[in-house]
Design a protein that fits this description.
The chain is an alpha+beta fold. Helix content is about 30%, strand content about 20%. The strands form 3 sheets. A 3-stranded antiparallel sheet has the order 2-1-6, with no helix packed on it. Strand 4 and strand 5 form a beta hairpin.
Length: about 180
Amino acid sequence: MAKAQFHKNQRVYVKPVGTWALVERVVPQWTKGLDEPLRIFYDVGLGREFSAEELQAEQAVAPDANDAPENWRITRARNKWQPAEDCARHPVPGTFPVVITGEAEWGGWRVPGAEYDLNPERIERQARLIANAPQLESFAQELVEWARKSGEDMPDALMQLAHQAQDLLTRVNDDVG
């Protein structure tokens, strides 16, 4: 006997096609004399019905504050738009910074070459700031937690800094636009 693993309007990954789709219909295959369907197929609007083994449910990813800290880092990429001798005034001639924000070496933040050439020192500073953002966020969180635990025993200037840190964390974590 089969039980439905997916429901109507659920987003699923269709493995044979390699795309995401919505389940439009749940199609049970009934057999005479049985109270439950023998098999269940799913119509996702791609021209045929798929079995549950061919589909994969979307996994909800909830950010966990207890996860290991992120390891963002700066690497150097070759400057393809100018030879090294034409950019001798750059901090590291012939290269530009790339901030890697994931485990793979290809993801992250890059800057257009023309913008880097206008003010390389500014872009280098931005890269260092972005690469250290996870540590700055952790520092702000610890400051806010310490302020909550300390209560009224904190100096006013330190309490003001904790409020600013809380406001920044709220903007980082809650804003969608």
